[in-house]
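Help: why these numbers?

___
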Amino acid sequence: MTTSKATGILQRRAISPDAARQRVNRRGRTVKTLNGLPFPKRARFIYLDSQYGTERYWSALNKAIHEANPPYAAALSGLRARGGICLRKHFDIISGSPILQKGQVASSIVLKRLEDVRLIETLEIDGIGVCIALRGMGNNAYYESKRLRARLLAEGVVLDAIRLWAGRMNMASPIATSIRDQEPAPKFVTFRFDLTGPTYLRPMVTWRKSKPTPGFFVADVLLGQELV
């Protein structure tokens, strides 16, 4: 569990907040601290040496992340919604984190830290390329990679259709609209998307010195699943 949760348990046992924090800080040598993945308010994930790598350990770590670490929780949820595997180059889109933004955890940092604590791993899959997969997929990674290939092809068709539809609706020019795997890569401010394009629809445009600054039309596509 996290140190903050351990402190809360001690407080519910009629131990004062200060005394509870001190007891957690002075934990014995058998209690290990997970390095590489910080939690809010300087909390850390702690575990017994004998628990490391067990299903109970992984379950508790995932639960702690989803309760207290939104950037990492969003990335893991996005990956699970895609069968537990994605192209590495799509991770910036899937993670929901910015490429680089002050005060926010960058997508590259999210990726590195999740790799460091072995919640995800990098795989090279023939015919697809470098992929990111959830820990412990094993032989399922090969099966899911076939579904990944099919899903990427289908989503590519959908993205092309959205781009053409946006053009017909005068929402964004198909020529100026980018979709993933194209250059320049789709981007709005500091975030990656599956599709982005400038839009000059009146509610989206701002004016500066009598010159229009467009808004942006953005979209992400995920077929066959619902993000929750």
Summary: Residues 1-68 form one domain. The two ends are 24 Å apart (CA to CA).
